[in-house]
Amino acid sequence: MLLIYSVIIFLILSLAGITALFLTNLKKSRATYEKQQHTIATLKMQTIRNRLSPHFMFNALSTLSGPAHDPQTISQNIKTLLMLLRQSVDNIEQTAIPLSEELEVVKGYIGLQSLRLPEPIKITFDIGQNADVNQLIPAMIIQIPVENAIKHGLMPIIGEKILSIRVQNYDGGIEISVEDNGIGYSSSPNRSMGSGTGLKILYQAIGHLNSKNVDKITVKISDLKETIQSQQGTIVRIRVPEGYSYDIS
Q1: What confidence tens digit (pLDDT) does each residue in 32-89 have?
Q2: Is residue 134 part of a domain?
Q3: pTM of the prediction?
Q4: CA–CA dist 188, 151 (Å, integer)
């Protein structure tokens, strides 16, 4: 009987030891997997940001190839360009930036882009009184739609060019809209959902961040004539949920 008890105790201890070893190895494997996932996530975001930065710099630098201006204007344009490039470099290290900072970059970008256009663009910024300009948003989430609006929507048309940027609260976060009176979304194949270097990179960044959040950032591009029959143009609506996490770990 003592032998039987000894065998049972031995088996129990052996099973406990095997179980403990299995759980330890499982924990180590899980920790290794999570570390690898964090590394992959970090590399993805670094790749996205590193691709955004040269793209942004190229477009900003190209604006200086426009017509010459007086020395004071040239000096101001160079200062604006330096601000844009500094922001671009700084943003490489950040997953998100404050809305106010993104708007500052957009205003500078529009100012430089206007130098290349034969006709001026009427620009309006409508920032809601209750909109939280300190809320974090992905870098270039406004600048890229603005760039597309100018390049693909407004530049092809003759006559008055209008670009409107609005920021307002919605139930659960902020909504940003970029609207133009250009040729329209459906008439501009280079502006379609997911096409173009800037949009592709932006969607990659948003897609990766959304995978870490329950409430998602949404981007919708549509023709204005879908809602206003007599008006052509494009509207991009971006919704960023309140409390959105930019933690890629």
Answers
A1: 666 666 665 665 666 566 555 666 666 666 666 555 556 676 677 777 777 777 766 6
A2: yes
A3: 0.73
A4: 10
Q: Which two tokens stand for residue 2?
A: 């003592």
55 within domain boundaries: yes
Helix (H) or strand (E) holding 100: helix 99-113
- Here the CATH number for the domain that contains residue 215 is 3.30.565.10
Polymer length in residues for the chain: 249
Q: Which residue has the tokens 């409508």?
A: 126
- Give the residue from 58, 113, 132, 62 showing the smallest Cα distance to 88: 58
Cα separation values, 228 from 29, 116, 161, 232, Å: 57, 30, 18, 8
CA torsion angle 29 32 34 40 (round to 10):
-140
Residue-range definition of the domain harbouring residue 146: 2-241
Nearest to 161 by CA among 112, 108, 120: 120
DSSP bridge partners of 180: 163, 234
User: Locate tokens 């008890």: which residue?
Assistant: 5
Number of compact structural domains in the chain: 1
State both tokens at 228: 């206003």
